[in-house]
Specification:
alpha/beta, 5 helices, Isochorismatase-like_dom, Isochorismatase-like_hydrls, hydrolase, Isochorismatase-like_sf
């Protein structure tokens, strides 16, 4: 039987207040992700952390070797939890993440992290394409206000549109507290 794993994507210091690229609602999302992490550890489920790192130190955010690129303490990995470092939006692209998950017998993922409209979206879609079942904890993910063609789009609308699109694409969208009490098979 395939296992479920928790995939925590880019919950890093630069996304928090005082960081180089703060997100709307990141602290609440990190709290929900921390609850998932606690529950996954209690259940003995595999946990994989993903950390985005720019290849240059002076990047807009997540600069190589900077404090902002570190995983936030709220979801700090334990020594036995792998950290996959990526340089692209898609956590599966050029990282070995798929191989790592397969080596652990993982067939379904619970996803949490940031930014919802970028890396969470890309990883969720890639995981679905690779045949994983995906449950996305909508309240354990954060984004920011965006703009397009003169239209301002508040973060809450970005989040809602993305969750609707990912649900349509095949992901299951649930709140973290419900997932932590009832992990997908």
């Amino acid at each position: 039987m395939a296992r479920t794993a928790l995939l925590l994507i880019d919950i890093q210091n630069d996304y928090f207040p005082g960081g180089k690229y703060p997100l709307v609602g990141i602290e609440a999302a990190a709290d929900a992700a921390a609850e998932l992490l606690r529950a996954a550890r209690e259940e003995g489920l595999p946990v994989v952390h993903v950390r985005h790192e720019a290849e240059e130190v002076d990047a807009g955010f997540f600069g190589k070797g900077t404090e902002g690129a570190h995983i936030h303490p709220a979801v700090a990995p334990r020594a036995d939890e792998p950290v996959v470092v990526k340089h692209n939006v898609n956590s599966f692209l050029d990282t070995g993440l798929d191989e790592l998950l397969k080596s652990k017998g993982v067939g379904s993922l619970v996803v949490a992290g940031a930014m919802s409209h970028m890396c969470v979206d890309a990883a969720t879609r890639a995981a679905l394409d690779l045949g994983y079942g995906v449950t996305l904890a909508h309240d354990a993910a954060a984004t920011r206000d965006l703009a397009f063609n003169g239209t301002e789009v508040p973060a809450a609308s970005v989040q809602a549109a993305l969750m609707a699109a990912l649900e349509f694409a095949g992901a299951t969208i649930r709140p973290a507290k419900d997932i932590a009490g009832d992990w997908p098979a």
